[in-house]
Amino acid sequence: MSTGVGISSCCVSGNIHSGTPTGRVETVGGLQTYVAEPPSGSKAKTVVFLVDIFGWELPNVRLLADQYAKAGGFYCYVPDVHDGDSLPLSFLQNVEPPLKDKEQLTMIDKAKNAAIVPATLGPWLITHREGVSRPKIDGFVNAVRMIPGTNKIGAIGFCWGGRYAILQAHGQSKDENGASIGGVDAAFACHPSLVAIPGDFDPVTKPLSLALGTKDSLLDVDSIGKIQDVLAKKTDVPHEIQLYEDQVHGFALRGDFSSEKDKKSQDEAAQQGMAWFEKYLS
Q1: Which secondary structure element, helix H or strand E, spans residue 156, and what is its range?
Q2: How far apart are CA 152 and CA 74, in angstroms?
């Protein structure tokens, strides 16, 4: 039986990072896409970023794509797989306000904020269910694979997008016409949500790396143990699980840079992903 791991208010907590993204916006595969080029301009090592519920315009994900491009030499794409329907950043601030504001909230305010999460996330998750989102992501990967100069492709995903990075590690699948679609050469999933265990991990055939926090409310110790058990049986598929002490859901993308420990964990997760892709996309 598959165990589903869902989304709570923890999935919408976190911080917006400062900085100015240096990439550009193009249309790729019919989707608006943020593109970050490496200094060499080479597409030999390509990485597709599969976003969380806050989407492709979140400054954090664009800044991270810039980092992968500049420091790792990867050609990075951050597609709008939500078709303009990502949750607004104001939702992040409402659900998880700054600590100084949070301490001033009344019980009524806290109750209102708690009610916002299921009322907003529920309908959004139905709209962006797997039957809608996976074909869109598969199609984007196909489009990228057709771009001249592209060699191997990796997928990195966060939270909601983390699960789709894992699904891309299943390898190519078939559409209704029998044509091969989707599938990447390696995947890196950071604190994935809504995963089915073992259902999402049994079909993995491509190198898969996971960055997980020990205090992730969406992937508890028991769930992590089950994932480890499934992957341990895949002796022919490269895989790794890195655990980050005291890190909560979202730490690899929306960590608190005012905390030295949190910033260090986010930096180490970025290094984990770049090392994985350097090994399996080169």
Answers
A1: strand 152-158
A2: 11
Chain centre to alpha carbon of residue 28? 19
Tally of CA atoms within 13 A in the half-sphere of 111 that contains its CB: 3
What distance in Å separates the CA atoms of residue 82 and residue 128, rounded to the nearest whole number?
7
Q: Are strands 3-4 and 24-28 parallel, antiparallel or unpaired?
A: unpaired
pLDDT in tens, 90-131: 776 655 544 445 556 677 676 776 677 788 888 999 999 999
Question: Are the CB atoms for 129 and 135 separated by under 8 Å?
Answer: no
Query: Whole-model pTM above 0.85?
Result: yes
Residue 126 buriedness (CB in 10 A; 0-12 / 13-18 / 19+):
exposed
Q: Are 137 and 144 in contact (CB under 8 A)?
A: no
- Answer with the residue of higher pLDDT: 108 or 84: 84
Tokens 């598959």 locate to 2
Quick check: helix, strand or coil at residue 259?
A: coil
With contact defined as beta carbons under 8 Å apart, do 7 and 37 qualify? no
First CA to last CA distance, the chain:
37
What is the Cα–Cα distance from 254 to 162, expressed in whole angstroms? 14
- For residue 209, what is the DSSP state? E
What is the H or E stretch that residue 208 is in?
Answer: strand 208-213
